[in-house]
Amino acid sequence: MARVFENVLVFDGTGSSPFPGEVRIEGNRIAAVAKGSHKISQEGAEVIDGQGATLMPGLCEPHAHITYPDMLKLRELGDTPPEEHVFVTMHNARKMLDAGFTSLYSAASSKPRTEVVVRNEINAGRIPGPRFRAASPEIVSTGGLGDERQLHMYHQGIELIADGADEVRRTVRMCIREGVDQIKINISGDNFVRLGQDGACTYTEEEVKAAADEANERGVWLSCHSRADKSVRMALKFGFRVLYHCEHSTDATLDLIEAAKDRIFLAPAIGANYRLAHHAQEWGITHDVADRMGVFKTIEQTAQTYNKLRKRGVRVLPGGDYGFIWNPIGTNARDFEYFVNLFGYTPAETLSAATMLGGQIMGMPDLGLIKEGFLADLLLVDGDPTADIKILQDQDNLLMIMKDGAYYKAPRPRRKAGKGSARTREMADA
Length: 430
Ligand SMILES: [Zn+2]
Hints:
By secondary structure, the chain is α/β, with parallel strands linked by helices.
């Protein structure tokens, strides 16, 4: 099946300005890209008149938690039985695709096999969902981020608790046996669960090394929760590929991050904190409560750190930790606005991070750009998101969603253009 999108504004994902042009798709790949009109062959193709809408690569969420049921407390993850949890995850996969996210790199599953089975069903074409790299649960120490237990009562959240190098090693081996694509380990604590713990490590070097040795030996990727400066250094030392948060990094640590920039990815996951600080009053998180939780301080520190990282050319991706009631699954595009407003990115730089760097974090060198030979994961957007990045927050602005060359959402008319619509020539002729 060949398709040509004509009369579109092409945002190719590199970060350069969008240009009026046309794009030909053959099968699941981009066959040709041209500036202007009628430069590429329309032979044997369905022709879609984009009516000036923007054609861009599909979005990537680099810190996905699609096992999260838009919850108030982490404990709700443990309260959800495995059977129901598979459905929660399956529905969330579809919600992400509805929101234009054609790739998900997970930052932890709530149960060892939940994401693995959903990934397998998506890959087999039996349920809709984005391309999906499935993760282990968060591997944490006693008292670390995710340990929901009380001394008198057992609770389960998103964690697998492992203390000591041997237990960490065994837990990593088990997750790999069950089929995860990446291991997630919480090297530092977090104010969200225990105030003042975001600057402290909850694992020793010996434990982190044990996890890293096992994953590296088996070719499985490593991601970590690392707010504390020391945790970032450990992650760099032991070959972690994806580092989350990192806002306590000193300038000396930022030098180390910059030196490793060709092999690592960072994601601050600012949206969860931003929404908690400003949009969670309804759930009892008043300004005072948020302040006591240290949320405003975290946001300020994250803004400082990521303004520096942007200037150092480190691969930083927007998104992360959506799936709480104040930042539900599917609203992830809000993070783009925070990158612009808090970190000094331009909209085009932000969208390049969400698309081009998205392909890179997924480990797919032919994903994330509108370029000849690349995989056809594409969005047709009503308007120009490089002029107004907020338009991606409204799913009605997504006129078409394509994954792997197939329509998930077939082209529909532009809403405001007035004259004509995004429609196929066949449809017009019919
Ligand atoms: Zn997370």
